[in-house]
Write a structure and sequence with these properties.
This protein is α+β, with helices and mostly antiparallel strands. The chain contains 5 helices and 8 strands; from the N terminus they run αββββαβαβαββα.
Length: about 170
């Protein structure tokens, strides 16, 4: 029982104190964002290529992840502020299929308007984030290349995310 408790505490600490990384164009070699197709909460098949020519923030999250829940409304604000400039947020939920029923009510409660896709096997998350930490966000530029990534969440990180998105919109 102590092993389970200690493991859960370690995971909680990792999520709470998650490490973030930001890489501007001077310090990062752009890498093509892996293509994916997933179903949305509305049943529509959505692919990364559907957003070609836009700056995209891909955010991986789960309903049981407290830092994710804290971050999502801030990402909605960024989406609202920048959507008219060729920017969108794509939320990718990684809850297992058996927990899928909680996704739509949470999205409604948080007033999320950006697309929410379902990755219940975490296969897409594994392409972007092999460590499988949450929350995890990636800014993809207009050419479909990864510009910046953010691991975890801390208060104020939304400013760093917005700055990265704005830099790509200005290109």
């Amino acid at each position: 029982m102590n092993l389970i408790k200690n493991t859960l505490l370690m995971l909680a600490a990792t999520f709470f104190f998650g490490i973030n990384a930001y890489a501007g164009e001077d310090s990062y070699t752009f890498k093509a964002a892996p293509e994916f197709s997933l179903r949305s909460t509305k049943g529509k098949k959505v692919s990364l290529s559907d957003y070609k020519g836009q700056v995209i923030l891909i955010n991986f999250w789960a309903t049981w992840c407290a830092p994710c829940i804290q971050e999502l409304p801030k990402l909605q604000k960024i989406h609202d502020d920048l959507k008219g400039e060729g920017f969108t947020v794509i939320g990718i939920n990684v809850d297992e299929a058996r927990h899928k029923s909680g996704i739509k009510p949470l999205a409604k409660k948080l007033n999320l308007k950006f697309p929410i896709l379902l990755d219940n096997t975490s296969s897409v998350m594994g392409l972007y984030n092999p460590q499988m930490t949450l929350p995890f966000s990636v800014v993809v530029n207009k050419e479909g290349n990864i510009y910046a990534y953010f691991n975890g969440y801390h208060l104020g990180m939304e400013n760093e995310i917005k700055k990265a998105a704005e830099e790509m919109l200005d290109e």
